[in-house]
Amino acid sequence: MCRFLKFLFGSTKTFLEEKDPMKKFLIVGLGNVGSEYAETRHNIGFKILDELANDKGFTFETAKLGDVGTFKIKGRSVLCLKPSTFMNRSGKALKYWMDKEKIPLENLLVVTDDINLGFGTIRLKTKGSDGGHNGLKDIQLFLNSTTYNRFRFGVGDEFGKGRQVDYVLGKWNEEERKALPERLEKASQLICSFVLSGVKITMNQFNGT
Question: Which residues, other chains included, contact 186 with Cβ-Cβ below 8 Å and sequence gap of 6+?
Fold first, then answer.
């Protein structure tokens, strides 16, 4: 029987997963590729997914338009994506994997930095503007919608006039580095809650913590 299904659908795994797309999730962490960006505020999306990978015991592999990693949790399949298209072209990678894996919009979560929130503040929203964030702007262009789940991690706004780019592309200060491990652990918990409990329960439990 398994051989027959493999012949028809390529593999039993693909067949079973596509049979129930509501149990498939796409988590996209925003950032820029390259070691020079690894510890910058703008790359918190990558950093949070790395924490999740460490927590859930999976690794990322280079694939089309990004690095991808997968894990399962209580019958749900989760695909994590770190786009290799650089921040300003994040939408292309997101849309490719969303379409390829047939993941419904409500099961998409975008993880991004936010200068409008104090350092370490976490907030989950189901819709909103791009807020001047070029990664979100590109995603909204490809989705043709501002209604999608986004996990905003506060990086603060300790910069002078005209210094925003330098700030978000700058590295964490000593105080932030010390506080990051606990914040990253909380961020990983939020993502798992989103997959298991849904966006509304997760918002009530984690927003502002």
Answer: 122, 206, 209
